[in-house]
Amino acid sequence: MRFSGQIDAPQNEAGCEPDQTVELQRKKKKAPDTAFETFATLQSGTTGKFTSVLVAKKTRVYRAVVQESGTCEDALSNTEKVKVKKRR
């Protein structure tokens, strides 16, 4: 499964898009939003893009989070349900 995205900070592109820590989070599909937990972290590139390939073993709801820093606001992606089918 490929996780990818683009950090968009129109007010401060040079300061808030490159080299940001992106947390990949997941939760069980029926759990409340407070149940999201970080399972991987990665860095955005010089243009704010990030990508990672990971293996999903169970059906979960995923999202990406960038924490607030001194000059940059926090950001939260839309959630995406990834359904894993059992092999026969």
Comma- or semicolon-separated keywords:
88 residues, mainly beta, 5-stranded antiparallel beta sheet, 1 helix, 7 strands
Offer a quick outline of the entry.
This protein has 88 residues and is mostly beta strands. Helix content is 5%, strand content 41%.
Can you walk me through this structure?
This protein has one helix and seven strands. The mean pLDDT is 91. Strands 2, 3, 5, 6 and 7 form a five-stranded antiparallel sheet that branches. A two-stranded antiparallel ribbon has the order 1-4. With 88 residues, the protein is mainly beta. Strand 5 (60-66) and strand 6 (75-76) form a beta hairpin. The protein has one helix spanning 13-16; strands at residues 2-6, 21-27, 37-43, 49-53, 60-66, 75-76, 80-82. The protein is elongated, with a radius of gyration of 14 Å.
Residues in helix, %: under 10%
How large is the count of helical segments?
1
Order of helices and strands: EHEEEEEE
Distance between the termini: 20 Å
Sheet having the most strands? 5 strands, antiparallel
Instruction: Give the mean pLDDT.
Output: 91
Got a strand count?
A: 7
**Poorly predicted regions:** none
Estimated structural class: mainly beta
Tell the overall outline.
elongated
Rounded to an integer in angstroms, the radius of gyration calculated over CA atoms is 14 Å
Into which percentage range does the β-strand content fall?
Answer: 35-45%
